Amino acid sequence: MGRLTFVALLLTVVFTVSYAVGAHIAVRYLNPSFGAWWNSNEFAILECAAAALGMLIGIRIGARLVQGGEVKNRSMVAAVIVGGLILPIVARINAEVARFKFTSGGFATGWLIDHFGYDTGIILDKVLTAGVYSIKIAAFALPVGMILFGVAIAILMTAEPAGDTADATSK
Amino acid sequence: MLSLRFLVLFIHIVAVIVALGGSLFSTFALAPVLIDELEPPARVRVSRRIVRRLGAIVLTSLAVLVVTGILNVLFIGGVSILLAIKLVLVVVVIGLALYQYGNLGAQIWRLSAAGPSPEVADLQARFRRVGLTVGSIVLLIIYLSIGLTRGSGAIVASIR
Predict the structure, then answer these.
(1) Residue A34 lies in a domain
(2) Of B3, B13, B80, B144, which is most buried with the most CB atoms under 10 A?
(3) Of residues A70, A91, A82, A100, the one with CA closest to residue A146
(4) Is A129 inside any structural domain?
(5) What pLDDT is attached to residue A105?
(6) Taking CB atoms and an 8 Å cutoff, what residues of chain B touch A62?
(7) SS3 (DSSP) at B77
(8) Is the distance from CB of A55 to CB of A141 less than 8 angstroms?
(9) How many domains does chain A have?
(10) pLDDT in tens, B136-156
(11) Is A171 helix (H, G, I), strand (E, B) or coil?
(12) Closest CB to A97 among B53, B74, B102
């Protein structure tokens, strides 16, 4: 689970920075066909990786709130499998929602150019914009991950044998 | 009147009613009656099963709430600070519900298998307190939702 989260985090960071600074040009320089593939898919990978990261963090937070045991582990596995299956849908919807602006926006560009100069400021602004976009996708995916785990544990707990108290109390 | 947006909103509201109504019924109607009418062994036997069933119902309702809530944001077409606060509260509610049913509920389930005990009574009291906290936060979320759609700073008016 930890490795999966690390991979999702790594992919999110790499593809966010790559998309922001146009790193596909460097990849094209080394391998033109792979660079072209990178350029056409990096945004989709960014969205999917950010959504996966949010869901995995949500599943892990959910698991921490629940008492340990076999049911908890099975619930985590079930939530990860279902999360993987619905990842394209969650990524698509969350990417749409993440495009909505929270404020009137646009104030960071001027501040960054003032402090770091025009060339660096513009690049930092692109990194910031792509970073905020990724964080928003992950943030919207977090409750989805938590509740996936919640439903999984609820189903598995209910399916467990009742272990009735009748015998214990009659004794 | 009959649109996908309306249907999603309807399911969203029904999910709130089911989640909140179930918890309130259990806390204020069922629990006092069980205490008055049943002997401790029978009461523990009934309430441990209720904890599980209610957990499944509440957590499933919360799942429906999250899915329809995200779709609602898509339909509204904007995210305000008020909505961001609401989303944070939703995460808190999911966390508390998981703690209530997955942690306290699981402990009640495990300990009550041996019959009534002081530990089970303590856990049941904590279970009710967490349930009331969840209910209060859900009511706050409902108030924020009314502010989002009906208040002076309604999101649709501020975005468009």
Answers:
(1) yes
(2) B80
(3) A82
(4) yes
(5) 55
(6) 94-95, 98, 102
(7) coil
(8) yes
(9) 1
(10) 888 888 888 887 777 665 555
(11) coil
(12) B74
Domain around A41:
2-161
From its phi and psi, is residue A117 left (phi > 0), alpha (psi between -120 and 50) or beta?
left
- Write down the ipTM of this complex: 0.77
CA A123 to chain CA mean position, Å? 24
pTM, 2 dp: 0.81
Can you tell me the distance from the alpha carbon of A152 to that of A71, in angstroms, rounded to the nearest whole number? Answer: 9
Both tokens assigned to B103: 């942690």
The residue type at A140 = F
Number of neighbouring beta carbons within 10 Å of residue A51: 32
Q: What are the start-end ranges of the H helices in chain A? A: 2-21, 24-30, 32-65, 70-98, 107-116, 118-159, 166-170
Residues in B closer than 8 angstroms to A67, CB to CB, are 102-103, 106-107
| Cβ pair A56, A145 in contact under 8 A | yes
Residue that is written with structure tokens 């009659």 in the block: A170
Helix or strand or coil: residue B113? helix
How close A109 comes to chain B (CA, Å)? 21
Q: What is the mean pLDDT of residues B32-52?
A: 79
The pLDDT averaged over each successive group of 10 residues in chain A (171 residues) is 89 88 82 86 89 92 84 88 90 84 64 76 82 88 90 81 49 38
| Cα distance between residue B38 and residue B30, in whole Å | 11
Residue A140 in domain: yes
Residue type, B157: A
Q: φ and ψ at B120, to 5 degrees?
A: -65, -40
Which residue is it, tokens 């249907």?
B7
Whether residues B99 and A96 touch (CB distance < 8 A) is answered with no
**What angle, 0 to 180 degrees and rounded to 10, lies between the N-to-C axes of helices B4-25 and B118-150?**
150
Helix (H) or strand (E) holding B134: helix B118-150
Residue A157 within any structural domain of the chain: yes
Task: Name the residue range of residue B78's domain.
Answer: 4-159
3-state secondary structure of A106: coil
Higher pLDDT, B71 or A167: B71
Torsion, Cα B8 B10 B15 B21, to 10 degrees, reads: 170
